[in-house]
Amino acid sequence: MIRKRFFGVLLLIGAMIIGIPAGSNAADEVAKLTTAPAVPPAITRPGGANVSVELETIEKKGQLADGVDYTFWTFNGTVPGPFIRVKVGDNVTFNLKNNEASKNPHSIDLHAVTGPGGGAKATQTLPGGKTGFFFKALNPGIYVYHCASSHIPTHIANGMYGLILVEPEKGLPKVDREYYVMQGDFYTTGNTGEKGEQGFSVEKARAEQPTYVKFNAMATPGNLKANVGEKVRLYVGVGGPNLTSAFHVIGEIFDKVYQQGAVGTEPAKNVQTTSIAPGGAAIVEFKVDVPGAYILVDHSIFRAIDKGAVAILEVTGNEAPSVFKPLKSGGADSGH
Amino acid sequence: MIVKIWKGSALATTLVAIPLFIIVFLTLLCLDAIPAYSADGHVLDSRVPADKLAEAKALKSAVPRSEKTILAGKAIFTGKGVCANCHGPEGKGDGPLAASFNPRPRDFTDADDLGWHKARTDGEIFWAISKGTEYGMIPYEDMLNEEDRWALVAYIRSLEKSVVANHK
Lengths: 336, 168
What we know:
Helix content of chain A: under 10%
Largest sheet of chain B: none
Number of helices of chain B: 8
Oligomer: heterodimer
Radius of gyration of chain B: 25 Å
Shape of chain A: globular
Order of helices and strands of chain A: HEEEEEEEEHEEEHEEEEEEEEEHE
Distance between the termini of chain B: 88 Å
Structural class of chain A: mainly beta
CATH topology of the largest domain in chain B: Cytochrome Bc1 Complex, Chain D, domain 2
CATH superfamily of the largest domain in chain B: Cytochrome c-like domain
Strand content of chain B: under 5%
Largest sheet of chain A: 6 strands, mixed
Number of helices of chain A: 4
Distance between the termini of chain A: 98 Å
Strand content of chain A: 35-45%
Shape of chain B: globular
Number of domains of chain B: 2
Radius of gyration of chain A: 22 Å
């Protein structure tokens, strides 16, 4: 008995020294993941590397609004889930773990995957379980991933989505700042603003009447930041489950939009508002010329003003009166 | 002249329109009462596709049915299989996630006397647990081994009201 154990330990040490790879697709690198609004750095190496991605599904209480508690279902404990960045041609080993405290099976369908269910069939995972699959990143672009376990709409409504970028071979043009923003609609049992612990209302979700619409519902708090003169790129996704976003930045014009996340096509130029469907994403770029607070909204405006679909890009630097300057104060006699 | 005709026909139109309006209104009311998608009516229809039905019906348990198997099934049902999250802790179809489904997760006590247990062979129940159904039952064949799935069949069978009553 003791002997057996001794041999076991010996074997283990041996394996550690030799470094027996866990799977058949030994990864050269583990993909660096970031929590919204952060984006991992651009990939400087060529495509075709063996990359592993590790995600964990976690059901976790958080705040949907001031004083409003909600149990989110998440990838890695945030909504949206982490930003994943790989390069076209990469060989990706995807590992999914379902936290043992979960009450539901979870899985993942990555829209960047060519294969059954985008990985959903291979990753149905019970609490405490682990699954995985291999895929080759064939198409560049910005893609949504989401949970695809029954009841799928409920899993998505509770926050199970995120973005994966498959960089084109030559990368995307250089910019000064990159941010990750993802919109989701939420359906609480109580009305908008009702305090305390809120459950999920499947009736409101079916009727497509959200009580909250949020950008980065449970991610790193704080404003996006940039300096005057910088080029900003936003990766904007919509998890839904229901609403198409009329994405707009108040006081800015998108110099470029890769509509529908279609990297590889010529981007649209000079766009005010871009539509992003649930399960879809876009890349928008603009240079910030004037300091101030620029408000990101879903321009279906009740969602922004009344239901929370607002985020702020804080631009600091010198005033640029040749581009913009206020002329008169708004006092009662200012019109004379 | 034109005005006169118009006036006359307007009156007639109004007279016809009132009952018409009521009929349309009532119809709309009725339509509203029907849920967007209803599958409740065919809860008894087999969940196995026609071309696989004979094969599924004939499947026989790999584990002998015993008190021990039933308890093992119960432990999976309320534990690692998370069946209870949809089907409820006692298999009544009333788990926390039940409201998301139509039809609801099956009530294995068959409180409504639908005759669900009689309508199914063990093989069909095993098949549904393994392959799932198009109304949201999750396929478990990659998540639970065969022995576990048969233990669940045994447990589900033990929940039928009449079986429970005979036990007492």
